[in-house]
Amino acid sequence: MTGSPKFLRVPTRNFERSLRRLIKRYKGSKEKQAFIVFISQLVDELCNEPHPSNSAFEPIPGKMVLSEELEFRKLRFAIPGLRGASGQGRLMYLINSTQHKIILVWIYSHEEFEGRPDDKSLKVSLQDAIAFLGEEANSPTDVKEQ
Fold it and tell me: What's this model's pTM, rounded to 2 decimal places?
C-alpha cells in the first residue's frame, strides 16, 4: 500500500513520560498542539525512514547486549519555538528489523541532558522496551504450535 509506514511505532512508558515533560515547556495551548503535531510528524518520518541523516548509532550502556535484530539510535532535531540548548531535541529509539518496529525510548532537550541520560536510567528504559517487545511477541495471537 502506497504511503504506509515501513515500521510500526511503539512508544514506551519512558518515552511518553519524557514527551509529557517536554510538552509542559510550552505555555500556550496552540504552541503545545503545534509541538505535538511536530513530534507526530517526526515519528511518522522515522517510521518511513529509520536511518535519516540526522540520526546516528548510539552506544549501549554498560555491559548490556542487544540481539542482532535490534539497533539503538539517536535522532537530533530542532524543537520548534525553543531557543538555545532547550531548542536542541534528541529522540532515542530502537529499530527492530525483524518485527519492523520503531521502539521510542526517550525524547529530551539538550538542556535537560547535555549528552544523554545517565547509563543506569537508560539501561532500565532499554530493558523495559525489550521486555515489552518480548511480551508482545508472546501474546496469545502469536503463539505457535510446538
Answer: 0.86
